[in-house]
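Here's a chain:
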Amino acid sequence: MADAAFVADNHGAWLKFVPSSMLDEQWEVAAKTPEAVLSHRSCPWGGHLIKIDSKSIFIQKAPENSCDVLVRPEVQATFEGDMEMTLRCLETHAPGDALIERTNSMWILRFAAVLFGSCHDSFAYRFYHKLPVLSQHRLYKDFPEPGDCTYFALEGFWTMRRVPGSVSHYRSVLVFNTPEDKWATWASPFYPGFTNMFHKVADKVLNSPTIRDLRATDANMYSVLTLQSFNRGHPMVPQSKPCEDSVTVAAGEHLGLVSWTRFKPHEKFHLSEYMRDFTERLGHQLQTYGVMDGRKLVRYQCVVVRQQWDELRTPFFEAFQVQKAAYRRANGGTTAPSLVEDAAPRVVLRDFSCCAQPVGIKTIVRKTFIVPMLGLDMDGADGSQDQQKDRRANPKFMLGVSRADPESMAAVGPVADNHGSALSSLMPLGGHLIKIDSKSIFVEKTPENPCDVLVRPEVEASRNSVLFGNCHHSFEDRIYHKFPVLSQHRLDRDFPEPEVPHTFQQKQCGSMRCLPDSSHRRYRSILVFGTPEDKWATWVSPLFPAFTYMLHSTVERVLNGPNIRDLRATDANMYSVLTLQSFNRGHPMVPQSKPCEDSVTVAAGEHLGLVSWTRFKPHEKFHLSEYMRDFTERLGHQLQTYGVMDGRELVRYQCVVVRQQWDELRTPFFEAFQVQKAAYRRANGGTTAPSLVEDAAPRFVLRHFSCCAQPVGIKTIVRKTFIELDEGSDHSAGCLKRSNSTGANVGFRYGRVRNGTPEIAADVESVEAQQWDTGGFTSVRGMADVAPTDNYGAWLKFAPSCMSDAQWEVAAETPEAVLSHRSCPWGGHLIKIDSKSIFIQQAPEDPTSVMVRPEVRAMVPPGLGRTSGCEVDLQHLETYAPGDALIHRRNSMWILRLGAVLFGSSRHASEDRIYHKLPVSSQHRLYKDFPEPGDCSYFALESVWILRRVPGSVSHYRSVCVFTTPEDTWATWALPLFPAFTHMLHNALDRMLNGPSIRDMRAIDANMYLVLSLRSFNRGHPMIPANDPASEESFNISAGEHLGLVSWTRFKSDEKFHLSGYMRCFMERLGHQLKTYEVMDGRKLVNYQCVVVRQEWEQLRTSFYQAFKVQKAAYRHANGGTSTPSLVADAAPRFALREFSCCAQPQGIKTVVRKTFIDLDEDSDDSADCLKRSNSTGEVMTLYFV
């Protein structure tokens, strides 16, 4: 095939080379860690060999047979692995030998591709495949030594050998080949980190729950059959017609197997051939194999798939019983062949030569698989850059760094405990701070209370001193302790925000925040720790993404492990909160050994020896924790009580006790407390006495977490159902306080004020606001996972200049596209990819229909969107207008991953702008006939995509994609990669615009909406059914009696008419809900038109027209004459004055949110653009939340 790629598969050479790979001779050590050794050497058949030798890996529940530690490739393909790898079995040649289609994007291989590849010929196509690659995978058991197992894949192998004297420890040796005989000495500082990471990955793979299930499946996948007692000649097979050599057996008449002949009497017998031939003559297909796990079985054995054999064994043995009679008839005597199932395999002379497969097998990658010769030359084969994906960016999490003031640390002795400094995040604690922020972690069986996701006070530390330590002063003594270290651990709940558990350990802190997921199972995890010196290891930057990924995975495993679920259950029942009630007449009483002046005597306590009682600390402030401790001590017991719980101080009439300890003491306590009640009544008079409630809900005093002072800034007051914002002199972040409580903070927070306009912070839970858009009045919902910045107005103004080359600096130019950049007027840096001509198959007649509205893209079935070639998942949340929707987007396109690396920075990656592996909610808009007639523009978060038909062509379009990065810098170091990126992005856009899914979506989009138009109402607004028949404006029409629509009135006669409002009100009076829009694709319709969803209209149109016919009679009755309004469906849309202004945001607006309305206090000298309400004459300023 013309588009097929051929890759040599030197299996024979690899097979001969394996034994020498287990030795250290001729290998040059590049890196050595306590767990593994990285070495390399020249490859005898070309290229360079790299070996990672892990000396000992502990395997949980290791199989008894050491050869079974690895799983056959065809079995692996039946499951989804733990890593980013997908296998699909196309053909099984033998057990342990299969043709596999593999997609492999393991992060460790991404990293290896950077370290060991080259810009001319990367080895990514060898075994790191984001796109599927077809190759032969083999598993050899008892090779190269008895008890070993070796897995061969394309240009690499993995050997596992049990450590002598151990049952669960194995030596792991992985060897792979790079295409060029070169060694990257520049990467030497990274090799120890890579070696350690690879060891951990191998450990994780070999101990994952998936591979245990795979081993169980693999053990029962095949059955070995053995033929015995056929020394008097080959067994018989049935034949359709008798011949000279055949024998007839009457016992087979009921099966139609009368005539039998000997199976290949002049050839050497092989059971695999016999079983295949025998079942074929019976009309069945049975796949048999004479080779198993790289070893040839003796000729009287073969292997079959157990499931297939179980289906055929009954008809087989029925026929085989007749075969025995035929065998005796042909040979005489009583012996006959017998078949034994599940026999132990026996192999011929042990030979693992490459006889089965010749050296240099060519592997074919067909059509949908891309295995190019990678390089920067854009004149090569199509898709040659598709494999050059830089893996250094990961959307789930980021590694952030902040500076702290120096502080001397004790080198020996107890660890310094700067709890207050770490807690407030504002106090200097010395050294350097490192933060790992996992944006979303899914927690299985999550507790109802998000604060319970962490357990008191366990925190798992990562072994990361290799990255952030230094040769003079490693920070291993901070969080990684090979020897025991004594320190205080704390868990603060509802901190720093409500429902956020926060934990502290020495110079380390972390928090978990519940994201607004429908199942409440996703959490944001933040881990911060300090290093002793205020230095940052820039030399090891390439390892940080891998480390971040590993730590994220570790946290995810810890939060989902079986142990933590048990711990959570234990934690939930660990403590009991005690509450003392009804002691407003004085402090409760405690027993005393000797009477005094203030004591009272209670005879009821004689049997307990508790006769004399006195008041507990009458001149001090009462605290139940002190009272309970003192009370039990006087009874001769020890009870540990606490006045603080999870970092918060309880009210003074509550305390916490350990449940187990309390259960042991509660009986003697309540016996004595009953006497205390009598003493309390004796001392105070009356009948009331203190009572103790167990397992009460904890109540806390003014929320105070050590030195966590509230930042000065916006003062926010939450009063019941409304929010008031009072802008202060300082524009830093502020906190909200509940006005009807003691001041406890609640889980809402506004961000800083920028240019007088408040921003919605990323963790605002549910704040309703209103926003005037270009086309009409829409609603914006602040959500925790909505990206915090959407400079939509600025983008709208800037879009026309995107089509011009002025002020853009060209960075790369290919025959297909141009990459250019410039500073962003509103901050950051702009990047533009201009594809001059993209051919669109079956392009629509209307050039503005080449793009699909966002709500339509999100409503198609999930599988349909995938076929376009882009890894984008959209979920529709709300439609504001046709072409304007709130979308939940997950975007992990590989081209954007690469863009995040090229255009991001170590401090602030661009991933959070347009590359979202985790869902992000944002508003998507499609504008038609913008910026010029015939154009269409798609606005998403911090980006715009414009398509314009090439003049003189019907199917060729110019594509301009512009997006922004957070920092106004340009990555000059990546200049050699820009042509490849430009070419790849052009190809990605081409695939997306020509995918089969987008054609289907265009057809759906064309019929999604319906334009309604009202005519002939120049004599006044049309009528609607009256709510109040007794009102002066209403009148009766007898024609509507059968519908119950007798009383009618005019629709808002004193306001300007809008069909959208009329249709919505009319249908509500009929008892139906109809969603109408007066904005379509960014343009406002004339007042006598509106848009409805076609499917909704079809369901309601009959009811509407029946009532609307009565409305015509009412209209004639009210106005006289014969003309009446008429409604036209599927009318051509007519737009008001075409205006795509971005409604610039006013400066210094003071915003007051009361109940469900927004009042804007305008400055008299404000010159910003304004919008008018459709039903009023006043102007309102645009409220713009960033």
Summary: The first strand starts at residue 5 and ends at 9. The CA atoms of residues 34 and 92 lie 39 Å apart.
